[in-house]
Structures are given as C-alpha cells and as structure tokens.
C-alpha cells in the first residue's frame, strides 16, 4: 500500500500498521480496558443524520471560523499528542508545518519530542500547548514561562489523567518512552527496518519540554502508565486550574471536561474554552463519547465559553455534525497520527487535504455557504 492509496483516515491507519513495529502502532491505536469508549467515540457520529437543504447557491463557500480569537481555515484542530518522533522521525515538525500550510490550529504536548521554542519559532499559525500538571511545581512554571516567551496562543490543561488508564495493548507489548529494545520486542522492530534505522540513526530521542527538570533525564525508558502515576500531581483541584490560568494570562482551555457540572465550573473560573474529551478512550473505559455529550453541554454553557468536540473524528462530516450541535470546532489526534506514522509530513498534508475536501463537499451538499449556518435543524437523531 502506498500513500496515494490512502483515501480516508482508516486507509492511513492500515498504512501506519504496515510501517510501524507493532508495539508502536498499538500505542497509537490502543485505548483503555476493552476499548469500548474508543470505538464509541467514532460510532457516536452515526447516531445523528444530516438533513441537507438544496438550491442554496453554494458555488462559493467559507469553511473558516474563529477559534479562541484566531482564525482557522477549517473548523478543525490538530489536537496535541505525545511522542510524535517515535512514530515518524519528522514528528511535531511535520504536523506543525502541515497545520501552517492549511491554516489550522495545532498543539504540542508536554511530552512533545520537539521543544516549545522550536515550534514557536517555526510557524505563525495558532499554537496550543497541552499542559500536564506535574508534582514538580518548578517544571509547571517553566513550561508556562517558555510558552509565554514562544508566544503560544493557548494552553490546554489536561484534567483527565489523574491516574493512568489501563492500556492493555501497551502492557502486553511492554511499550515504553523511549521504546526499549527487549528480547520479546526485538523481532517486531527488526521486521520494520526503515523505522528502526530512522529511530536509531536520526536525532536522538528526547522530551525537551521536561528534560530540564526530570533528574533521570527523558531518555530513560518508562511506561506511560508509570509516568502518569509517578510524575503527575493527583492533588490537582479547581483552585489549581484557576491558579494556572492566572499565571498563564492568555487563552486557557480545560481538556477532558465531560460533565455539565464541570463545564459550568470552567465558565465560573474564567476559562476561554473546554475540550469535551475522554482522552481518545485511553483513560476511563465505559465513559461517554464526546459527541454523545455535546448537546447537553452546549445547552448548559453554549455562548458562555468555546466548546471543542475532541475525539473520534474520522470524516469531515463529523466536524460538520459537531458544529451543527453547537460546537466551536472539532478536534482529534489519531486523525493525523496515523498519517504521520504512515508518511511523515506528506501523510499529514494528504490527511488534512482529504478532510478539507470532505468538509467543503459536505457543506455544499448540506446547502450551507458558511459554517455558522449549521444548526440542529439540520440533524435528526436516530
């Protein structure tokens, strides 16, 4: 299979599986426990049917919207995801450049493999930094200050990783960050020599946003569950979130809000936005899908705070359905991670291009000329 054979996000998943060692692929593809929530995240979009209008004069349409004060060419955010240079040697650089080419928001993780400073200097399009609150308060402060200096546009505080979800595929494969070559995993890496050569001989693995404060260095292999359970601050409260918001002083988003009560609290402490998210199904299996929960949250706080529906997006129509319910935008990680793993920057650009075409085609077939015309009258629930 080649890049030109990829015509949708699921095709990129197939190509990524062909090109990655299985422990690395399973880290991207896997989720918590039975992976029921991960499956529902995408399936939820099938619960709502689009009702198109015709004869609407759709020769010229505008797919752009404003997200957190910055214009985006599409109602789509490339969510921050960790460890990207493990999946392809170009990593966050490829995703950031592709986002800039298409005029989109992109994010980088606290566990990014490229530094805040480099990404800040690389692109002029809007940038989001995903913050994990560590027990080391100096590290938290350092990352916020570095984002301020690098002129990031928003911080998204992740609030759904108080403990690590049980990612059973990673437990079986022994996946660590950085990947550890063991007797049991050696064959999987040997069978993918292109990936192995890139990983061994290109730029050395690092987590540059952490390595100034992690005493053992970020090159020491550790499981993601072990990292979450030992490094992150389980005492985090709403007061912590508000303190970080004030310290940052810019656009501030909570990532991982799923309940109406928490959405209202986010409004009360002055958040600019929330990302309705269950961490791609990687934390609490059996939890609601973001799209299933979207209408309830929009009805409670819509108009008071920006609402981003994060997770499960595989089609342009998924973004359109999110906006029809009342979201500011949709977002996702796997939608570009599969493409990154499959073919680097070229893969990410092709994936975004396909989603762009789907959004444009979907809008024309829906009979809307701008995304703000989408509303619930254009949806029916099964």
Tell me what you see in this structure.
With 382 residues, the chain is of the alpha/beta class. The protein has one domain (3-47, 67-368): TIM Barrel, CATH 3.20.20.70. The chain has 16 helices and twelve strands. Helix 1 (9-19) packs antiparallel against helix 16, helix 13 (260-268) crosses helix 14 (290-301) and helix 15 crosses helix 16 (334-366). The model has no long low-confidence stretch (mean pLDDT 94).
Element order: H for helix, E for strand: HHHEEEEHHEHEHEHHHHHEHEHEHEHE
| CATH class bucket | Alpha Beta
Estimated helix fraction: 40-55%
Tell me what portion of residues adopts beta-strand conformation.
Answer: 5-15%
Which secondary-structure class do the elements indicate? alpha/beta
- Report the CATH superfamily: Aldolase class I
> What is the CATH-assigned architecture?
Alpha-Beta Barrel
Total number of helical segments?
16
User: What is CATH's topology name?
Assistant: TIM Barrel
CA-based shape: globular
């Amino acid at each position: 299979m080649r890049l030109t054979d990829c015509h949708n996000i699921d095709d990129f998943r197939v190509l990524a599986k062909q090109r990655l060692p299985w422990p690395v692929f399973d880290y991207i593809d896997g989720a918590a426990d039975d992976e029921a929530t991960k499956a529902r995240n995408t399936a939820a979009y099938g619960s709502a049917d689009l009702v198109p209008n015709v004869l609407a004069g759709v020769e010229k349409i505008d797919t752009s919207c404003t997200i957190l004060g910055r214009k985006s060419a599409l109602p789509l955010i490339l969510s921050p995801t960790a460890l990207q240079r493990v999946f392809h040697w170009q990593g966050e650089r490829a995703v950031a450049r592709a986002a800039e080419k298409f005029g989109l928001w992109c994010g980088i993780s606290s566990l990014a493999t490229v530094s805040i400073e480099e990404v800040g200097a690389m692109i002029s399009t809007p940038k989001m930094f995903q913050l994990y609150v560590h027990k080391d308060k100096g590290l938290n402060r350092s990352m916020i200050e570095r984002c301020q200096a690098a002129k990031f546009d928003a911080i998204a505080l992740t609030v759904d990783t108080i403990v690590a979800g049980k990612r059973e595929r990673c437990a079986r494969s022994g996946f660590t960050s950085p990947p550890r070559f063991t007797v049991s995993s050696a064959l999987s890496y040997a069978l993918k020599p292109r990936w192995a050569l890139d990983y061994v001989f290109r730029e050395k693995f690092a987590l540059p946003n952490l390595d100034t404060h992690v005493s053992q260095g970020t090159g020491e292999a550790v499981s993601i569950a072990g990292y979450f359970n030992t490094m992150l601050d389980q005492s985090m409260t709403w007061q912590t979130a508000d303190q970080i918001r004030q310290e940052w002083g810019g656009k501030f988003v909570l990532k991982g809000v799923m309940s109406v009560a928490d959405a209202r609290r986010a409004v009360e402490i002055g958040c600019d936005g929330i990302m309705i998210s269950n961490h791609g199904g990687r934390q609490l299996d059996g939890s609601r899908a973001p799209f299933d929960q979207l209408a309830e949250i929009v009805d409670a706080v819509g108009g008071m705070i920006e609402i981003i529906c994060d997770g499960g997006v595989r089609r342009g129509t998924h973004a359109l359905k999110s906006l029809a319910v009342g979201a500011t935008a949709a977002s996702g990680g796997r939608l570009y991670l599969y493409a990154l793993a499959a073919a680097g920057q070229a893969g990410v650009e092709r994936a975004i291009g396909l989603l762009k075409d789907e959004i444009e085609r979907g809008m024309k077939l829906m009979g809307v000329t701008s995304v703000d015309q989408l509303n619930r009258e254009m949806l029916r629930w099964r």
